[in-house]
Each structure stands twice: as structure tokens, then as C-alpha cells.
Amino acid sequence: MLPQALNNVIDALGMLPGVGPRTAERYAYFLFKSNPKVAEGIADSLNSLHSGVKSCPVTFALIDADEDVSPLYSDPSRDKSIVLVVEEPLDIYAIESTHAFRGVYHVLGGAISPIDGITPEQLHIRELVNRLEPDDVNEVIIATNPSVEGESTALLLEKVLHEAKPSLKITRLARGLPLGVDLSYADQITLSAALENRTKL
After folding, report:
1. How far apart are CA 10 and CA 131, in angstroms?
2. Spatial distance between the Cα atoms of 126 and 128, rounded to a whole number of angstroms
3. What is the pLDDT of residues 9-55, one digit of tens each?
């Protein structure tokens, strides 16, 4: 019978995606054996997570709590007329690591998935449409993940954007991305090639 405090940590760690019971046990025991400052540091960072991070009201990227908008949006060297649309905030950092894109971003907050109860209304599609005129957007690059959900979301985006602004150029990342791989796991060369070879819809 494990001590309750250790069990509590195992249960908490087991709630993380990809962490099974055995892995949670190993992590918890590692923290117990380590210098208490290690666990304290992790606890402090977790305690400040929600108070220190928020979503950009324009792009829905993750930003520091004291920032008004994403630095990638407010940076005058970025081209606001080109918007790259991704599913999740972490996808932005995968694209940024290529140093191949100088436009701005828009995070949908997921992909359409009826099985998971995610409908178009729950995504930041309307907010994207509302950015078209103020930012004089002339191209939207759809960079949803190459999955069934991502493809469905891309098709809906194409329809909504064409209706909102018929002259808008809508492109997709080239098929250099293997099917079923999330953007955040793609390598820099693959992402760079996909950006360079994007195709018009």
C-alpha cells in the first residue's frame, strides 16, 4: 500500500495525455527521490500557468498575461495581408521554427469533429472572417492537420471564406506533410517544403 501523498501524485500525473499508470508511478517516484526543490519548481510553474498565460483576442495564439495581443501579430515586420490558419496554438511554433513564414496567424481552437462534439460554431471561424477587411487580408493559408477532421475543417473554411470575400486567395500547405501527422510533430524541412509548395484551392 503506497502512502496517500504518493498516490495523489500518481493519480494527478496519470491525467496527462500519454501517461499510463506505470509511467505515472515512475514520474512520482522520481519526484519523491529528487531534491524537493525540483518538485517545488514544478508546482510553482503549474500554479502560475493559468494566471500567466492567456489567448490573444485577435489571433487566439497563447501569450503572456500582461500582453495585449500576440507579438507575432503586432510586429510591424509581419505581413498582415497573409494569414496562416492552424488548429492549435502549438502548431504556430512548429511553423515559426522553419523561419519560412512572415505573415500572421489565426488559431481555430481545434477541428470539426462530431464524434467529439466539436462543431463549427465552437471554432474561431467567425473571428477569422472578421479579420479579412480590417487587416486587408488577400491570402489565407489553411494549415489544418492532414486528418479527416482537418480536411473537413479546411473544406468548410474554403466555403465560408469564399462567401465572405470572393477575391480572397485561399491556399493549403502542399502535401509534403504525411497523412495523420500533426503539425507540431513535423520536421522543419517538411514544413518548409509544404509552405513553399502550397497550392491554390
Report:
1. 44
2. 5
3. 999 999 999 999 999 999 999 999 999 999 999 999 999 999 999 99
Amino acid at 81: S
Q: Is 23 exposed, middle or buried (0-12, 13-18, 19+ CB in 10 A)?
A: middle
Q: What range defines the domain where residue 65 resides?
A: 55-200
Condensed to tens digits (0 to 9), the pLDDT of residues 84-99 reads: 999 999 999 999 999 9
Q: What is the pLDDT of residue 11?
A: 94
* Residue 61: all three cell numbers together: 495564439
Same domain for 60 and 40?
no
Number of domains in the chain: 2
Euclidean distance between the first and final Cα of the chain, in Å?
A: 60
Same domain for 29 and 100? no
Contact call for residues 168 and 138 (beta carbons, < 8 A): yes
| C-alpha cell belonging to residue 48 | 502560475
Cα–Cα distance, 143 to 172 (Å, whole number): 6
E strands of 36-168, at which residues? 53-55, 62-64, 79-86, 103-107, 139-142
Residue 196: predicted pLDDT: 73
The answer on pLDDT for 172 being more than 80 is yes
